[in-house]
Amino acid sequence: MRNQSVIRTPDIRARDKNLLFYVQRDKWLYLMILPVLVYYIIFKYLPMYGLVIAFKDYNVFKGIGASEWVGLENFAKVFSNAQFWKSIRNTVLLNLSTLVVNFPLTILVSLLLNEVRSQKFKKAAQSLLYLPHFISWVVVSGIAVNLFSHNNGSVNHMLNALGFESIQFLSKNGWWVFTYVICNVWKEIGWGTIIYLAQITSIDETLYEAAYIDGATKMQRIFYITIPMIKSVAVVMLILSVSKMMSIGLDAPLLLGNTKVMEVSEVLSTYIYRLGIVRAQYSLSTVIGLFQSVVNIIILFVADRFVKLIGEEGIL
Predict the structure, then answer these.
(1) Confidence of residue 296 (pLDDT cuts 50, 70, 90)
(2) Distance, CA of 283 to CA of 272 (rounded, Å)
(3) Residue-level pLDDT at 13
(4) pTM for this one?
(5) Are 54 and 288 within 8 A, CB to CB?
(6) How far apart are CA 162 and CA 156, in angstroms?
(7) How far is Cα 70 from Cα 93, in angstroms, rounded to an integer?
């Protein structure tokens, strides 16, 4: 009986420990995370109050509180606008095209980098692949114009030298989408390999050694060891990518686009920009932003549920 009471005493004390005890014990860890919490509260949660603009006839001079309530009138105006639905179509088209190309290529590049044996070459290749991520879209769009311009572009000069006609990369709808996807993949493919390479390097080396002893070739080790071990990470990355299907950055389509390709370059972000900043219709632009967030959340839950139904681990 004495031994049992001695064994149970730590459990009883552990149950009696309240939140204050853990805060006191891990105070330095909580202090490190405090700036992140403050950032999210100030820049992510407090601005949510502005969503009420979607239900008001917002007047800059009256402010949010004094502006008149109009209910769902702003939603009716937005949803009855043909340009809004065209922007949704273009947003999904560009995001889906980029995902289809970028997602498998990122995994492929990660696998290729992992097979490089020269550490110096591997580090140099990784640095060159990461570098475009840190280049502004203003610079990238300038590079794209110099490369793909119809009259003075380097690519068209090469095509002309080979006897081919110039291609209107930046003024034809189909070619503009191609150019947009290429620029996005070039800019982000290296950055996307970071997570996959981290997962690959954590794989137990004994698995490769056992497969090598059993006579497995290099390709067999990749297909039966590496790819299955990074599958869970790939699923998570795919879910996160799909959940952003209704969102797209403003800079890329705005800087690469022009009046000749408005049919495919006008996405939700540029539409919000023209509606809210240029035309000062803040209520309508807030409606679109709220719509984007709600749809993205729904897509996230649906994608996570689908992944769990096919036997994979989700993120929720």
Answers:
(1) very high
(2) 11
(3) 52
(4) 0.84
(5) no
(6) 10
(7) 33
What average pLDDT does this structure show over 174-187? 94
Specify whether the CB–CB gap between 162 and 153 falls below 8 A: no
DSSP letters spanning 66-108: HSEE-TTHHHHHHHT-HHHHHHHHHHHHHHHHHHHHHHHHHHH
Here the tokens at position 31 are 């202090």
- 8 Å CB contact between 132 and 186: yes
pLDDT given at position 2? 47
Q: Quote the tokens at residue 305.
A: 């549920």
Categorize the per-residue pLDDT at 62 as very low, low, confident or very high, splitting at 50, 70 and 90: confident
| Half-sphere exposure of residue 104: CA atoms within 13 angstroms, side-chain side | 4
Residues 276, 256 contacting (CB under 8 angstroms) = no
b/e string for 62-74 if b means 16 or more Cβ within 10 A?
eeeeebeebeeeb
Cβ–Cβ under 8 Å, residues 171 and 150: yes
Domain boundaries, the chain: 2-46, 78-309
For 83, residues 6+ apart whose C-beta sits below 8 A from its C-beta are 266, 271
What confidence category does residue 110 fall into, taking pLDDT thresholds of 50, 70 and 90?
Answer: very high
What pLDDT does residue 12 have?
44
**Residue 272: partners with Cβ closer than 8 Å, 6 or more residues away:** 285, 288, 289
Classify domain 78-309 at the CATH topology level.
MetI-like fold (1.10.3720)
Query: What is the per-residue DSSP string for 270-286?
Result: HHHIIIIIIS--HHHHH
Q: How many H helices and E strands in the chain?
A: 17, 2
